[in-house]
Design goal:
The structure holds two protein chains of two kinds. By secondary structure, chain A is of the alpha/beta class. In chain A, strand 5 and strand 6 form a beta hairpin. The termini of chain A are far apart. By secondary structure, chain B is of the alpha/beta class. The complex binds iron/sulfur cluster (5 copies). The site of one iron/sulfur cluster has 10 residues of chain B, from helix 9. The site of one iron/sulfur cluster has 11 residues of chain B, from helix 8.
Chain lengths: 316, 340
């Protein structure tokens, strides 16, 4: 488990020495189930910093909320580091204005699974690499960490931040890259009709609250295609066509850009699965272009790349 | 009238209503409960430690509905929605209270929304009180409670094997006719359950002078502080039973004018055609959400526009908690205004 004191010491140093103006990390929420993203501006504020398995957001999403030239520190896990890299590639931030505190990651715990097991009256949560102990008014419950992890984290291949300025804690063994493929193959093995039924069942529960979009670091467009009035790319309402249009196009806009952090699914108030679509696209990127997003800060995603000697001349 | 309904008799009773009404009740959808129409195989879900994920306001103000259909050559006709008489079963008191609050907006002397009115007139609400109040809810703090009767035709109290059925209107009475009367002793026990539930709920924040503090600190840094981690999504307001904002859009391909839920937390909400946005960032948008509920509702109808249902607390993807935000607001400076 990450050494919280070491993280705090480093964050305090960054702020005290003026290395950065703000550090983005987490602080406790009103209940132990919901830690909150937080912005630390001075060393004194850092006492309240937390970093645990219930911190469910991808903090990289806040990078584009802050001015480009601001010197920002961020506590990053594996996927957050890769999302930050992807944003640098897309020129949303320059590496000089960033200081990344990397923390090897043991995966995000899905709070809804805790509530399913023990109810809402959670007083405290303690965790280690194998077990999560939840204290409630009714008593203490020991749950297996693996069973509580979010699906994206169960198949994660890059738990160690790959380009942090400092790594806090020892690197962990990396995940098995085949697991991502297995998840996609499950979906691919279905017939067309079954796939469509799956897609319909997920997409058509959508309430178009766009929490998935806002939680995603790569959805930073100031005008999203669904907000366009002229031309209108998809129906505006919660109709089957509108919901399907939103889900398909959102996923395709992530081709070669999604790190499969799963922040979209965790933000969704309707428990809608979305990563089966983005993971399919990620898998295609790996297979067809040997490309994986966020591994460096130069390589453009294949669909954003134009070269004069492109062998395909955009013919169909 | 106080009646007893044995739980094993409930499924038949629900089915018996189907002849005359569309019956809606909370049923399992994925990992949560959702108000859906009763079918032959419906299973009522009330064991969750809280209310349904989407509030039943959606049964009165659907997420999307057609208002007008365009015809050829520039004409149009009414969308002609068919609204059947219906019973909403196991609506929680906070959600029923919210519908009543929304009447003040949709049923006015100057303008009444015909669809809202028709749905209201054709609906019977059977409330289920919360004998085990939820952790995130705070109905007692905002002046209501887990057995609040506002806007209900019937209130049920879960007494283990049976419900105490309190009928509160003629329509409610008709739905439950033929049930045995509850003994005084049974009613007494139910009152204890109700009181206990009420007493279990802590005060989430003080409401005294809250309006003045929010108003007088309109330009305070407070808003920056409480909105920093907000994502600007629709979760808190779409799930909220008292939020009623909508947007009207012409879906030209469908030849329809539709109304969709909208929210002040979206960046496009107050964006003007010129490109100017009077609420340009999440600071102003968060201020609008909290002020609408705890200042403007009071200005308009002298009631707080939040029933304490707890949904925004439970599902905000970044853990922003309106209770904590308002506790913090209570520490802001303010002056007592002297009239005249
Ligand atoms: S996707 Fe990987 S790095 Fe990201 S939170 Fe999950 S386990 Fe950690
Ligand atoms: S978060 Fe869920 S409900 Fe909201 S727009 Fe995304 S998929 Fe739809
Ligand atoms: S649900 Fe949370 S993140 Fe979304 S708009 Fe509301 S306060 Fe902001
Ligand atoms: S503001 Fe929050 S607690 Fe209050 S009624 Fe709306 S969703 Fe419920
Ligand atoms: S809080 Fe916002 S979304 Fe809710 S009713 Fe008020 S203005 Fe509309």
């Amino acid at each position: 488990m990450p050494d919280l004191d070491a993280i705090k010491t480093e964050v305090r140093r960054l702020l005290a020495d003026g290395v950065v103006e703000v550090v983005v990390a987490f602080k406790p929420g009103d209940t132990p189930l919901h830690p909150q993203p937080a912005f630390f501006h001075s060393p004194e504020e850092v006492d309240s910093l937390v970093h645990n398995g219930l911190c469910q957001n991808n903090l990289a999403t806040f990078l584009t909320h802050l001015p480009k030239t601001k010197k920002v520190g961020m506590v990053v896990r594996g996927c957050e580091n890769r999302s930050v890299n992807a944003l640098i590639v897309e020129k949303q931030k320059s590496r000089e204005n960033l200081y990344l505190l990397g923390v090897p990651c043991e995966g995000i715990i899905d709070w809804r699974k805790i509530v399913e097991h023990v109810g809402e009256a959670v007083l405290a949560v303690h965790e280690n690499s194998d077990e999560v102990t939840v204290e409630t008014r009714e008593g203490q419950f020991n749950l297996s960490r693996n069973e509580l992890l979010h699906a994206s984290c169960l198949r994660c291949a890059h738990r160690n931040p790959i380009s942090a300025d400092i790594l806090i804690g020892e690197p962990l063994p990396e995940g098995d890259p085949n697991l991502a493929r297995v998840a996609v193959e499950e979906f691919e093995s279905l017939t067309n009709e079954e796939r469509y039924a799956w897609f319909q069942k997920e997409a058509e529960r959508c309430i178009r609250c766009y929490a998935c979009r806002e939680a995603c670091p790569m959805c930073y467009c100031t005008e999203c295609f669904v907000d366009h009035i002229e031309p209108r790319w998809t129906e505006s309402g919660a109709t089957p066509a509108g919901m399907q249009g939103w889900h398909i196009v959102r996923a395709f806009h992530q081709t070669g850009r999604c790190t499969d952090c799963g922040a979209c699914e965790r933000a969704c108030p309707m428990d809608i699965k979305m990563t089966y679509l983005t993971e399919k696209l990620n898998n295609d990127m790996r297979k067809k272009y040997a490309f994986e997003v966020g591994l460096d800060i130069q390589t453009q995603p294949p669909f954003a790349t134009v070269t004069l000697d492109d062998k395909n001349r955009f013919s169909v | 009238m106080n009646l007893i309904l044995e739980k094993h008799a409930l499924p038949d009773l629900l089915q018996s209503w189907r002849g005359n009404y569309d019956v809606y009740l909370p049923q399992k959808m994925e990992r949560f409960s959702h108000f859906m129409p009763l079918t032959d195989n419906s299973v009522l879900v009330t064991h969750e430690p809280h209310n349904t994920r989407i509030s039943p306001k959606a049964l009165f103000l659907p997420m999307t509905e057609a208002l007008v259909k365009f015809t050829r050559f520039g004409g149009y006709e009414d969308a002609q929605q068919v609204i059947q008489p219906r019973i909403i079963f196991a609506i929680r008191p906070c959600d029923a209270q919210a519908v009543q609050l929304l009447d003040t907006s949709f049923i006015q002397e100057a303008y009444t929304d015909p669809l809202w009115l028709e749905r209201r007139e054709k609906t019977i609400t059977v409330g289920l009180g919360c004998h085990e109040p939820c952790q995130t809810g705070f109905c007692t703090t905002v002046g209501y409670g887990p057995f609040n009767k506002a806007d209900l035709d019937v209130l049920l109290t879960d007494m283990g094997d049976a419900y105490l059925v309190e009928t509160l209107s003629k329509a409610g009475e008709d739905c439950f006719q033929g049930l045995p009367c509850a003994s005084d002793e049974f009613v007494e026990q139910a009152l204890i359950v109700q009181r206990n539930a009420h007493d279990q709920m802590p005060v989430a924040f003080e409401t005294e002078n809250l309006k003045e503090k929010l108003e007088q600190n309109f330009n305070s840094d407070y808003w920056e502080t409480v909105s920093q981690s907000c994502l600007g999504c629709g979760v808190c307001t779409f799930l909220c039973p008292t939020c009623f904002c909508f947007d009207i859009v012409d879906e030209t391909q469908r030849r329809e004018r539709v109304r969709n839920w909208d929210t002040c937390m979206f960046r496009t909400y107050s964006l003007e055609a010129s490109g100017h946005n009077p609420r340009p960032s999440k600071v102003e948008r968060t201020r609008q959400r909290l002020s609408h509920k705890f200042v403007y509702w009071l200005d308009q109808v002298n009631q707080i526009g939040c029933t304490g249902c707890g949904r925004c607390v439970r599902y905000c993807p970044v853990g922003l908690d309106i209770r904590a935000m308002l506790r913090q607001a209570q520490t802001l400076p303010f002056e007592v205004s002297h009239a005249g």
